[in-house]
Amino acid sequence: MIKGVKGAPDILPEESGKWQALEAVARDVLDRYGYGEIRTPAFEHTELFVRGIGEGTDIVEKEMYTFEDRGGESLTLRPEATASLMRAYMEHNLGAKNSLVKFYLIGPMFRHERPQSGRFRQFHQIDAEAVGSPGPAVDAEVVALLHHLLDAWGLQGISLHLNSIGDPNCRPAYRQAFVDYAEAHRSGLCPDCHVRLTKNPLRILDCKVQACQQIVAGAPTIAAYLCAPCRDHFATVRRLLDGLKIGHTVNERLVRGLDYYTRTTFEFLNPALGSQNAVAGGGRYDGLVEEIGGPPTPAIGFAIGEERILASLAAGQVRQEAPSYTGVYVATAGAEAFPAAFDLVQTLRRYGLRAAVDLEGRSLKGQLRQANKDRCRYSVILGSDELARGEATLKDMVSGEQRAVPLGEVVDRLTRLPEREFV
Ligand SMILES: [Zn+2]
Ligand SMILES: [Zn+2]
Fold this sequence. Notes:
This protein is α+β, with helices and mostly antiparallel strands. The protein has helices at about 15-30, 45-55, 60-65, 80-90, 135-150, 170-185, 190-200, 210-215, 230-245, 290, 305-315, 340-350, 365-375, 385-390, 410-415, and strands spanning about 35, 45, 65-70, 75, 100-110, 120-130, 160-165, 250, 260-270, 280-285, 300-305, 330-335, 355, 380-385, 390-395, 400-405. The chain has an 8-stranded mixed beta sheet. A 5-stranded mixed beta sheet has the order 13-12-14-15-16, sandwiched between helices.
């Protein structure tokens, strides 16, 4: 038997309802904030990700699904959404109609990671980006939107970490101070960090190796290096969030390694998830569009890991609602009643009801058992005697009550019946 690829799990019908509910809430909240959905292809030219995510990052160096297609082009399955979204923003000149463009993408991302708890090779993200404005109000609204979303999903115990990582004006001095410090502690760093030190030193801040984390704990922090405009920007973001009563902690270790990131960075953490505890995060990346060949374009966004959100909800932090009974099961007594039942089911579905009929020739008892299993609110029983009398039996599956109804009134009754009441 051929099995699925490790780290790329199936989402089965009994689980997909959770995903649909999660995404329905996201679409609703994103719509309220003026975000429109965009759908980009699952693959792009490899160069887009190499430039948009950055050489020297783990994603580009170790994790991309890159392949040559039959035309000899190098393509890559998207490992994240932002580069694709910015590519689409430029290609379709989305900024021409609105100075501030807000859009989101929901879909799978692909990374060749070592499968472990909380990490998948195909995983799903909700990605939102606000493009075109450098102002701190956009940063505050983006964080507030994410906060609203997590709240709408019923997540509890989530904390917000916030930082400013400066801009091309003030970051080089910080970077130099950090490099000087790291050089002085070089012997204590892990082999990966030795490479980072020459290629992308600020990535050392993200290293999970304990020895490196201890060294990082004593490193100079960005706050002292921020220039006045960056300090003002950060202060305004924080003041606006305070005004919305969105509590946050300034975390000076929250530094993104890449040069195109600027100013605000943020992460929402769920301590209950253990080592992979960031459920969502993002930041401003005013330099990215230029990096992939466009004009200077300020932008900020975030990505939410859907698997992490569902894991947080499964961790018992949210109340489960009792499954409810809905819809209609049309049961038949005798094969000759089947064509009428088949027709009735189609009619009920056209009227907007969830409706089922037995397609396997089971006994009436077997059909009613299935109706219970499917949690149908009502059953309609059609038998040849009843059909001859122009009647059907309507059964309330919760109370067990049943009564004869003229066949011509069945659809009308069922479409008008409140879910809880019968007769
Ligand atoms: Zn390290
Ligand atoms: Zn600055």
